[in-house]
Structure formats: structure tokens, C-alpha cells
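Appendix B.2, paired examples.
Example (i):
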Amino acid sequence: MASAKAIRFAIHLGRILPPRLGYWIADAAARGLSSRRNMHDVAMLRRNLQVVLGPQTDPARLQQMVHQTFRHIARAYYDLYRAVALGPDQIAAAVEFTPRARAVIDTYFGKGRGIVAVTGHYGNFDLAALAYSLLGFPTQVISWPRSREDYTMQNEIRSLLGLNVTPLSIPALKEAVQTLRTGGIVATGIDRPPPAGSGEELMFFSYPARLPVGHVRLALQANAYLVVAHSYHYPGRPHLYGLDFEEPIEVIPGPDRQQTMRLYAQRVLALVEDHIRQHPDQWYMFHPVWETLPVNDSL
């Protein structure tokens, strides 16, 4: 990830660069980065995408997908920083809510019952979150528990329009339960391996992966709905992203709490998996998701 200084510079560029030039620079950066096969982010992305696409994927197609992913994320960052630089009107114009998202928001959000909103790292999730924040619903975002300068800067961007961003911690989780019990919304990502010693082994693209289940625990503790959100770039429509919400899931407690958490965690993860299958080159995962894979799937 870029340094905080680089992010500030990128926001400045977003203000002064016209869109066509911004995308030209983003595309050039994507070509340069994606060609560095030994760079950590490139290697991890290639490994993760090969699981998504299948172990028999042609190497040339896999490399093309890696390049397309870097192209998408470079453009997404340009669009994010440009929107941040230009303000709320540009943020609102850059994100289109689907009819289903609008219906879910109108029916369930702010109606007195808490909502745990979960998503994956795809599309332009930060820009989508900023557009959502313009709606004014009290929302706590549980972010990755790291204090690096670049993560701090990203969280500052996420907080610009009223989102309450809290890095993962025991106090943050206690706050999340209270937020939900008072009818608020708590949002978090579910496709990145959690800190060591947490999470559960779930099936993700037919392979076991240790992934978060805390979002289900929160829903159970606070009698909240689970809602899966998706952000994605519209093909052929530059600078515009969609934001969709799946129908809310009612979390019903079972006799075995651990089994219940795994059941619902797997259910919402399957929805994220389906979305990634539709847009594999918009999934920005630069961390090893699968610790072990069969030997014959040499990734």
C-alpha cells in the first residue's frame, strides 16, 4: 500500500488531473506494477486468482487477469481520490445504488433493528462506503487492526463523511454490540484472513481458508440482520461504480453456537464468492487467503 504522503499527493492529483489523463496514468502504473512478477502483491494476487480461475488456467490468461486487476484498482484509487478531492457531490455522482439496494435500505435501515453489513475487497469499496455515508445512517466500520501510517490515512478517508472507523479490538467489538442494539449499522470485510488465533476454517472456492466469523457473532449477540454488500465497476462506464445489497439474512440461534456461526459465516461467504466469480478482475486481495492447497495445484 502507498505511504500516507503518497496518498495525500494522489488526492491532490485527483483534484487537478482531468479524468482521461488520470486513467492514462493509472493504466501506465498498472502495467508497470503487474509486470513485476516477483513483487509480493503481484505474487499473492496471482496465487489467489489462480484459485478463483482454477488450477488449470493458462499462465498467459492468468497474467492478463493480474494486469486487469491492477488496472481496475489503479483506476479505482484515482476515482476515489478525485471524489475525495472534489467533495460530496462528486462522491454521490460516482456511485449508483441498485434498485435492490435502495429497496433494502428503505425497508430495513434505520428501522430500529441493527444490521451487520459485510462485503469483500472488490469494486471500489471505499468510494461506495463514502457514498453510503451520505445517507446519514449511524455506521461503525470495523477495520484491519494495524496502526501503520498508510492504514491510518485510509481510515481517515473512510471517516470523512461520518463513518465511525474503529480498528479491530475488544473495545471496538463492545462498541459494535452497543451500536447494533441501538439500531445502528456495523460494517466489515469478510474475505481477508483475520489476525492469528481468530477466525474459523471455511470453504472458499472449494478450498479451506481461515476467515472471519465475528460478524455472525455480532449478529447473534445483538439480534441483528446480516446484509451482504457488493461494490463493482460498471463495464464500459468510466468513473461509475455500482453498490448492491443482498436481501437481509435472519440469524437464528441454534443449539450449538459455534456451529451456528460457521453455518451463517459460510452462507454469507458464498454470496461474496459468487460476486467474485462474476468479477474476478475486480477482487483486490494481496494477502494469502489459502494456507494450504493440494500439491498438484502448484500455485
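Example (ii):
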Amino acid sequence: MWELYTLWTFVPILLIYFNNEHATELNIFIWTFAVIAAGGIGCIVGGLVSNKVGSANVAFTNLLLSGVCCLISPLIFSTTAFIFVTFLIFWGIVVAGDSPQFSTIIALSAPKELVGSALTIVNSIGFAITIVSLWVIYQIYGIVIAPYYLIFLSLGPLFGLVSMRILLTVEKSSQASIN
């Protein structure tokens, strides 16, 4: 959740900046809604794909793609409006697509009598992390120009990807024993 809600919070600012820099008139409300709503696509497709490749693989891929989006986000401001909003929609898809997979992993891993508590704790930690990422980006707001705000969010996916190595190993061995 490091980059999820922070991206959603800053999408209107990024769109306004793009409009000002390119003398375009992208509708801030519609495109912000579209980026946030696109996350539903990532959740649905991720759920379908996870039945074949596992939740950890889907979460890892979405987290990796979201991290790449963080890193290349400054470059996208020099493109056309079509490419810019397409990039934001894609990012909206992948930034949300890992969340239900992490919940699935927790629900399947926790003892049955503690699933609700485990999900509550993980979601609470996620929202606490969101507060930190919003605070960090807010601190650089006004110091760094808009195209560079979200590059700092790549730290969350990087840490998450490193932390997920063991999950991928466990899931791979589980898949091998099933087959």
C-alpha cells in the first residue's frame, strides 16, 4: 500500500501539471476516476491469473510493474496526452492488483481461527505505511517538481519485492508438489 493511495492522492496534481505544461485540457475528475477505477481491472484479472500461477507470482508481478512505473514516471510527462493517460491507467491497474493477492496469501497462511485478525493487522499496517508515504511525498511537494514526486515511491515496491522472495520460493514448491 506504500504507493497505492499516494498515487491516487497525487493523480489530480499530476494531471493539472500535465495540463499546464502542455496547454491541454484533460478532465481532472474523469481521468482521476479512471485511474482509480482501473484498479478493479487489476484485481479481477489478477484473481483469474492467480488460479493458474499463484497469488505470490501475481502480487510480485504487479508490485514489480508498479515499481517500474514509479521509476519511469518522470519520463511520461514529456509524451502526448494519450500516452500520459494510458500510462496512468496502466499504473492504476497494476498498483491495485497486488492488494487482493496479499490478502489471499494472508487468509490462506494464517490459522483458520485467526484469519480475521491477521487480515485486520495486515490492513492496519498497510494504512500506517500509507500515512508515511503520503507524508514523505507531501514533504517534497513544492521542493521537487511534479514529474519527480512519485519516483520516491519506488522504495516501497523495492522493499516489497525483496521481502517477497521467500513467498515465491514457498509458492513454487507448493505448486510443484500439487503437479
